[in-house]
Amino acid sequence: MISDNIDACSREYPGFHFHHDKVMIVDGRILETGSFNYTPTAEKANSENILFFRHIPRVIKLYQEHFKMRREYGVLNQKGDLA
């Protein structure tokens, strides 16, 4: 799904055994990352972590560059999940 600058596509990355990023950038000003899954179990039962970076353009830019590189390198997952 790509809408309003939201990319929730599932991609596979040749050359990586496993690729697992959880990053959310809101309005180019707030970055959220960590192990937290947006599920009731994660909220109530798991040991999760989450980091927020607000108004730190240098850090946000690094994450945006990483995401752009992975998105360009990745191959759209045709298995049907999230696509």
Describe the structure.
By secondary structure, the protein is an alpha+beta fold. 27% of the residues lie in helices and 27% in strands. The protein contains 2 helices and 7 strands, in the order βββββαβαβ. It has helices at residues 40-44, 57-73, and strands at residues 2-3, 6-7, 11-12, 23-26, 30-34, 50-54, 75-76. The strands form 3 sheets. It has a 3-stranded antiparallel beta sheet, with helices on one face. A hairpin with a 2-residue loop joins strand 1 and strand 2 (6-7). The protein is flat and about 35 Å long.
Task: Give the helix/strand layout.
Elements: E1 2-3, E2 6-7, E3 11-12, E4 23-26, E5 30-34, H1 40-44, E6 50-54, H2 57-73, E7 75-76
Antiparallel strand pairs: 1-2, 3-7, 4-5, 5-6
Nearest-integer average pLDDT: 80
What structural category characterises the helix and strand content?
A: alpha+beta
What is the CA-atom radius of gyration, in angstroms?
A: 14 Å
Number of strands: 7
The proportion of strand residues reads 25-35%
Write out key terms for the chains shown.
2 helices; alpha+beta; 7 strands
